[in-house]
Design a protein that fits this description.
alpha+beta; single chain
Length: 147
């Protein structure tokens, strides 16, 4: 078995940290911190919208274009199985997510990410959100993108 390169291990750890930063910020309604996870021209693509740049991302998630109902209450995103491939200063990642709200499991799907290394650390250049399943009682607007 080949030994892991220290920079590869550090890069993957930093990317996993970014995935968690995004999730914690979103669950706490700290959309400025969530948006800071993107590059200046980074794109967040989710069912029904595609927005570019941190300011536009934060605005879309607060002004009705976002997926949430007006007041979803308790929200927790859980990320699993991040598969991260790096190539120098760029990376691709995919991971599964499940969202829990007061109803229990609310919806689930996949994140497909393209990331870049910046002077501030790894950032999303593009994040695509695919929703595989959504509860009929979901606290979010309808978002299923795959059968």
């Amino acid at each position: 078995m080949a030994e892991a390169r220290p920079d590869l291990v550090a890069d993957r750890d930093a990317i996993r940290h970014l995935l968690a930063q995004y999730t914690y910020a979103g669950d706490r309604g700290q959309l400025d911190k969530l948006a800071a996870c993107f590059t200046a021209d980074g794109v967040l693509e989710f069912p029904g919208a595609s927005v570019a740049g941190p300011e536009a991302i934060a605005r879309a998630l607060t002004q009705g274009a976002g997926p949430r109902a007006p007041s979803p209450g308790f929200v927790r995103h859980h990320i699993t199985n991040p598969l991260i491939e790096t190539d120098g200063s760029v990376a691709q990642a995919r991971s599964y997510f499940t969202v829990y709200t007061a109803i229990g499991p609310d919806h689930s799907g996949s994140y497909l990410d393209r990331l870049v290394r910046t002077p501030e650390g790894w950032r999303f250049a593009h994040r695509r959100v695919l929703v595989d399943w959504q509860s009929p009682q979901s606290r979010f607007r309808p978002m299923v993108t795959r059968p």
